[in-house]
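SAMPLE LOG
Freezer: B-3
Tube label: C17
Construct: single chain, 152 aa
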Amino acid sequence: MSSINAKPIHFLLVEDDESHANLIKLALEENNVSNTLDHVWDGAEAMDYLRRQGKHANAPRPHIILLDLKLPKVDGHEVLTQLKADDSLRMIPVVVLTTSGNEIDRAKAYYNHANSYLIKPIDFSKFQVMVKELELYWSVWNQPPIPDTDPT
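STRUCTURE (predicted):
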């Protein structure tokens, strides 16, 4: 990890596909960076986690959210809309990580203030490279907002 960041980055992965989630976790672990990751399986649980409700009452505030669009209960677009409408959550960067190459999905995600839109490659090795580069960018080069800080 670079000396640019004083603390590890905490990721929240919102992903219902177990194989995709495992690939992301594996790729992040292989970088040997002291970042942390929590994983939730659907949009409703993501909002509970972010709002620190129910079993997630003591959840840490993530620095970055990795968000799939096609989720059960509450889809990724709705999670993004709710997240960016909430004053206490809107500053958290959101990386949409999806299989959808649909232009409408991409436009809607950016309209709702996604910070990045990445299409998951089908090829495992390319997917692994993408996740490693994603982590490098967001955990070393990018300077995320400080959680729970009011800029006003």
